[in-house]
Design a protein that fits this description.
The chain is α+β, with helices and mostly antiparallel strands and 172 residues long. Helix content is 29%, strand content 30%.
Length: 172
């Protein structure tokens, strides 16, 4: 009898990212991840972007902040505010070491599913067009530019995406 061939290829365990809602004790981790994610934009705009200076102790209580983990590693987050007629994505941050792995798109899809579950027909967000790739990322996820407005020494791009409320499996 011949022996089975040995598999000499290294196996990389695939860990499915998981999402959970932030708790009050997560405020420091939210702050640290956000500061790390936005640090690269300080030299681009000449100041700290607003998410870097936010009060996350307060935000964890007043907004919905969902955390995305790979194993035990917090790699991304999304901060959402329910405005009644739409959900506003206030902050989407991905840790520098975890960027370009699809976490931003995963969290945008999570926000869309949440909006549908809550019966909110629209997602809104805003960004700085000098943050290279942000407008393209959001456009590739189905967001369209609504308007641009001056802000401080730059511009803010406001974007939105309609949410399909009559998806299978959703009550409506």
């Amino acid at each position: 009898m011949s022996q089975p061939a040995l598999d000499l290829q290294p196996h990389q365990a695939t860990i499915e990212p998981r999402i959970r809602r932030a708790l009050a004790g997560d405020a420091d981790a939210v702050r640290a991840l956000t500061r790390a994610a936005y640090a690269k934009w300080v030299p681009v705009i000449g100041r700290e972007p607003r998410p870097m200076t936010a009060d996350y102790d307060q935000a964890v209580h007043e907004h919905r902040i969902d955390l995305l983990f790979e194993a035990d590693d917090l790699v991304a987050l999304i901060e959402i505010i329910d405005r009644g007629d739409h959900l506003l994505i206030k902050n989407l941050a991905v840790a520098p070491h975890a960027q370009r792995r699809g976490h931003g798109k995963r969290l945008l899809a999570h926000a869309e599913a949440l909006a549908a579950d809550l019966g909110r027909p629209l997602l809104r967000l805003y960004t700085n067009p000098r943050f290279a790739g942000n407008v393209d990322l959001y456009a590739s996820a189905g967001f369209a530019v609504d308007r641009e407005e001056p802000f401080l020494e730059g511009t803010t791009v406001y974007m939105s995406k309609p949410v399909q409320l009559d998806r299978p499996g959703l009550s409506g």
